[in-house]
Write a structure and sequence with these properties.
Elements lengths: L1 E10 L8 E9 L2 H18 L24 H11 L3 E8 L5 H4 L2 H25 L9 E8 H7 L4 H11 L1 E2 L6 E2 L7 E8 L5 H22 L4 H5 L5 E5 L6
Parallel strand pairs: 1-4, 3-8, 4-7
Antiparallel strand pairs: 1-2, 2-3, 5-6
Length: about 250
């Protein structure tokens, strides 16, 4: 069975008070590749984490989690240079283009985020099919690792069943009268794992990625640059939603 591991975290919230909300992550096409990444990533973190301990007497016993919000630029560059050796993905939501009635309603906002994630994951898999890294006619196992705090704050509905429908049966667009065709034509096994970022190097890496994507996208907007061009040297595959401004 073919495998794909998609590891995600968010940066920013879906609110009109913020310009962008972002999901970023890293993709592996085998358990071997995933485990190799974790081994090296852990080594880098273990090499730098003690400098962030406030109480040196407890150093190495309860070092703080390395996050996008607390890491020095020099250490972040070191980690990101390693991360960029793998397949980096991003979902950028232009909050200003999302309908007000979606943002103002908690349930509608949760459904929109759920929809956006399903679209992102489907497009990542479709990209791998197009590049002949995955065959649509062979059995496929999809493992999605995502920060559990992200799900609590945004209230996803049923990401598992939605992905099965997206990938194997096709689905209607959330906002527009469009039908998207299925892309997987054999057995499909989907596992959604909601993880504690303090215990998951995969989610920690996704946190650094999402924060880097959001900062780069915001800088592009500030400098009146094209977001696509600004992030091309970092992201291997990205999707921007909504496709057009809400009216």
């Amino acid at each position: 069975m073919q495998e794909i591991y998609i590891n995600l975290d968010d940066s920013g919230k879906l609110t009109k008070k913020e310009l962008l909300s972002v999901y970023g992550g890293i993709v592996f096409l085998s358990k071997k590749e995933k485990d190799k990444f974790i081994t090296q990533y852990r080594s880098i973190i273990n090499d730098i984490k003690c400098k962030y301990c406030k109480n040196k007497s407890t150093c190495n016993k309860k070092c703080p989690e390395i996050k996008n919000s607390n890491i020095k630029n020099s250490d972040k560059r070191r980690i990101m240079n390693y991360i960029k050796k793998y397949f980096v993905v991003g979902l950028i939501i232009n909050n200003q283009n999302v309908y007000d009635h979606i943002i103002e309603n908690k349930a509608a906002k949760g459904r929109f985020i759920d929809y956006s994630l399903r679209r992102m994951i489907k497009e990542i898999i479709n990209n791998q099919i197009s590049n002949h890294n995955i065959s649509e006619n062979r059995p496929l196992k999809v493992v999605v690792n995502i920060d559990e705090q992200t799900t609590k704050s945004n209230g996803y509905y049923n990401l598992h069943d939605g992905l099965v429908e997206e990938l194997k049966y096709g689905i209607s667009n959330f906002n527009y009268a469009c039908i998207y065709n299925p892309i997987v034509f054999n057995d499909l096994d989907i596992k959604i794992s909601y993880q504690d970022s303090g215990k998951s190097y995969l989610v920690q890496a996704a946190d650094l990625i999402s924060g880097t994507i959001r900062r780069g996208a915001l800088n592009a907007l500030t400098n009146n640059e094209n977001i696509n061009y600004a992030l091309d040297n970092f992201i291997n595959y990205k999707i921007i939603l909504p496709w057009k401004k809400a009216t």
